[in-house]
Specification:
The complex is a heterodimer of chains A (310) and B (259). Chain A is mainly α. Chain A has two domains: 6-51; 55-305, MetI-like (MetI-like fold). Chain A has eleven helices and two strands. In chain A, strands 1-2 form a two-stranded antiparallel ribbon. In chain A, strand 1 and strand 2 (245-246) form a beta hairpin. In chain A, helix 3 runs antiparallel to helix 8 (187-215), helix 3 (72-103) packs across helix 10 (260-268) and helix 6 packs across helix 8. The model of chain A has no long low-confidence stretch (mean pLDDT 91). Chain B has helices spanning 49-55, 88-94, 109-119, 125-138, 142-145, 158-170, 188-201, 214-220, 238-243, 248-254; strands at 9-20, 23-34, 38-42, 66-74, 79-80, 95-98, 176-180, 206-210, 223-228, 231-237. Chain B has a six-stranded mixed beta sheet with strand order 6-7-8-3-9-10, sandwiched between helices. A four-stranded antiparallel beta sheet of chain B has the order 2-1-4-5, covered by helices on one side. The mean pLDDT of chain B is 93. Classes of the chains: A mainly alpha (310), B alpha/beta (259).
């Protein structure tokens, strides 16, 4: 083959660059489309729900009159359920991930467990709801409580936390582990001083992704029997709940409850179109809750990662 | 009157075989390690010198499928480091290690050095301060870091990081210190500093060092062992190995005909 002349080289480059730009344009278009959908969705909710963005909306209980109905019991319920979910799922998930990565021997049993954890992540959430209805609500007698809901969602996000914990641990170089073991540390000391702290940013990301998924879950919560119309809050610890009786520290976990998605679902299924405004406003609040959780996760991850490098 | 002192033994490999699963990586190694001397392990890549070195602190126990046969006798107590009855953690508390690539923890300089002491349950601030300073001085890095002990260790230069890792190993007063190609990731100046340090350290501790660099072996070691394909080909005083090797294969390697 003859060597190319300068003109020919330029022609080849021009052709290559055209394709380069073509792909870039396509990429930007796809990205814009995805963004547009989400922006449109949020804008729609804001516009529709604009009338309800008042303090009263956040401080009022559900009501038969749309203009007076608020989301107090729903957002409090969502936060409390998330608290139970996090308290149950994080220690379990992190411990399970840590065990699989740092302690478990590689054999067919661990392989089987691994495959099953991936499968669990794909189980439809309604199935978790049915499972919990049988186990938590009836078998353990926890009833239709915040505790039942929290544990149900904990099961749901456990695989997400386990997988992200394992991935975070796997990204720690072997030489750090060896450096720790070489001075005579035990496995647990290595985990406690190194593996867990260094994996923390990744674990945290998984936890937040899990919680963000859990906070929007409706099906399993309905299955275990969350109420849709609740005009009271769970008892605050050590306050009087009835004549001369104070609530215990953990009484609130056994309380009936509702959560944001159920409140929204309830409002959208009402015939009165005025409730659609409530639903849109509540939808926006739920969206804001999820986005702010993500923002916190990103911030914390950034803060923690700054000091971790090898 | 005998002027030449015969050094006492610190450790001795006896009939050491090592297997990565089915693959035999060390074949019947017999070799003495003399107390308060520097012993260099040389040989071409893949000859098993790092594998051999990592047997001394049971590093292979961290990974499944590895198997030792034979003994590494450790003196003065004449225990067998490889015995299943001996806890590898106990071995690692007595035998320190410095790795090929500097591997400081993403923590402060102070915490890096104090780590070995914390692992041993030492939490007294004054004791930690004392021992950390002593170790950093021992590793010839005290003057460079004394004003910034709370800085993050990974922000140090490569050579400083490696000396910090040496300080980390020294802090717990090991009896034997293993160096696995400690200068292969460093520039010539940092390498010179480490070599000087090794020379200084042998007053206090027995040293076993793997090196790819034959000049380095000649400069820092009292004894040299040449390994090839998992076997110990030749062991002797460094001068003798480099000037008058007994084995043809050693000679070929040293003179650069192979390697």
């Amino acid at each position: 083959m003859k060597p190319l002349t300068t003109e020919q080289i330029r022609a080849v480059i021009a052709k290559g660059k055209f394709r380069d730009n073509l792909f870039k344009a396509m990429g930007v278009f796809c990205l814009a489309l995805a963004l547009l959908v989400i922006v449109a969705l949020i804008a729609d909710m804001v516009i529709k729900g604009a009338d309800r963005f008042t303090l009263d909306f956040f401080l009022n209980f559900a009501s038969r009159r749309a203009t007076q109905a608020g989301i107090l019991s729903a957002w409090v319920g969502s936060l409390l359920v998330m608290l139970v979910t996090a308290l149950a799922a994080v220690p379990l998930g992190v411990a399970a991930g840590l065990y699989l990565e740092e302690y478990a021997k590689r054999n067919w049993i661990t392989n089987l467990i691994e495959i099953n954890i991936s499968n669990l992540a794909a189980v439809p959430s309604i199935v978790y709801g049915l499972l919990s209805l049988g186990i938590f609500v009836y078998q353990f007698g926890l009833g239709q409580s915040i505790l039942s809901a929290g544990l149900t969602l904990a099961l749901l996000i456990l695989p997400i936390i386990i997988v992200s914990t394992r991935e975070a641990i796997r990204s720690i170089p072997a030489m750090i582990r060896e450096g720790s073991m070489a001075v005579g540390a035990t496995r647990w000391q290595t985990c406690r001083y190194h593996i867990i702290p260094y994996a923390m940013p990744g674990i945290l990301t998984g936890v937040i992704i899990g919680l963000a998924r859990a906070i929007g879950e409706t099906a399993p919560i309905i299955t275990i029997g969350a109420l849709t119309f609740i005009a009271f809050l769970p008892p605050v610890p050590y306050t009087e709940i009835s004549e001369g009786v104070n609530a215990g520290l953990f009484d609130w976990v056994m309380s009936p409850f509702t959560v944001m998605p159920i409140q929204i679902f309830n409002w959208t299924s009402r015939p009165d179109p005025a409730f659609e405004v409530n639903a849109a406003a509540a939808g926006f609040v739920l969206m804001a809750m999820v986005l702010s959780m993500n923002a916190i996760a990103i911030y914390l991850r950034y803060k923690m990662r700054k000091n971790i490098k090898w | 009157m005998q002027i030449q002192d015969t050094p006492s033994l610190k450790a001795e490999a006896r009939g050491l075989n090592f297997y990565y699963g089915e693959k035999q990586a060390l074949k019947g190694i017999n070799m003495p390690i003399y107390d308060k001397k520097v012993t260099a392990l040389i040989g071409p890549s893949g000859c098993g010198k790092s594998t051999y070195l990592r047997s001394f602190n049971r590093m292979h126990d961290l990974y499944p499928g590895n198997r030792y046969e034979g003994e590494i006798r450790f003196f003065p107590d004449n225990s067998n480091l490889l015995s299943p009855d001996v806890d590898p953690i106990e071995v690692r508390m007595r035998v320190g290690m410095v790795f090929q690539k500097p591997n400081p923890f993403p923590k402060s300089i102070f915490e890096n050095v104090a780590y070995g002491l914390r692992v041993r349950g030492e939490n007294n601030r004054r004791v930690l301060d004392d021992k950390v300073e002593h170790a950093l001085r021992g590793a010839a890095i005290w003057d460079e870091v004394k004003d910034r002990l709370q800085d993050m260790a990974p922000n140090l230069s490569g050579g400083q990081q490696q000396r910090l890792c040496i300080a980390r190993a020294l802090a717990t007063d090991p009896e034997l210190l293993l160096f696995d190609e400690p200068t292969s990731a460093l520039d010539p100046i940092a390498t010179g500093a480490i070599e000087e340090l090794v020379h200084e350290l042998k007053k206090r501790v027995t040293i076993l060092i793997v090196t790819h660099n034959m000049q380095q072996a000649a400069r820092v070691s009292d004894y040299t062992a040449y390994m090839y394909l998992g076997e110990m080909i030749e062991f002797g005083k460094t001068d003798e190995i480099f000037i008058k090797p007994q084995d043809k294969r050693t000679e070929d390697y040293i003179t650069g005909r192979m390697g």
